[in-house]
Amino acid sequence: MRILLIEDEKMLADSLSTLLTKKGFTVEAVCDGETGAEYALMGIYDLLILDVMMPGLNGYQVAREVRRKRCAVPILMLTAKSDVAARIEGLNAGADYYLTKPFDSQELLACINALLRRQGGQVDQLSFGNTELDLSTGILHCGENSIRLSAKEFDIMRFLLQSGPRNLSKEALLGRVWGFESNAVDNHVEVYMGFLRKKLRAIGSNIRIQSLRRMGYHLEIEEE
Length: 224
What we know:
Helix content: 40-55%
Order of helices and strands: EHEHEHEHEHEEEEHHHEE
Distance between the termini: 35 Å
């Protein structure tokens, strides 16, 4: 499960990232609202943990922007404000849960698990068309046919299935699969898209990976 943490207090961000990583989550942390909103709208995260008081865009504004763009990622809002009016503002902005600082780590984990269950985040497979990806084994299934994916093929296929007909840019895929600090280039994405297309054809899948110039990639169901 991938979590986007938007928190401008570095010590807290580092602490939360360490805690969540130890619990098996993949965590990406950013320190300002503008960057956080941009990352959230990539549509590749399972959960957004959002601080309220930040320079630039505050947490309420980020949540409103995410919801305005019809991004349904669960939002857990963190804040030092404990009054009722602040909680109401957070929920009205689009947050799914509102946790007041300081909080116990076990309470945080319980909230995260509850939100993922509620939003269907804890699933065993993703599907599109006649094809399913088993998240526990990394195997693509189409009827009685199946094929195992490599680690990077699995990550790319997962993001494509989560986005469905919505476009995923090469930049987003490079950052999420290879890491923002890597030396990977556009050609790496193109090569792995070729691998995945061959594997989809091999199992008789009716989904196709389509590319749009300067827009990225999305899935389509091939008409019979």
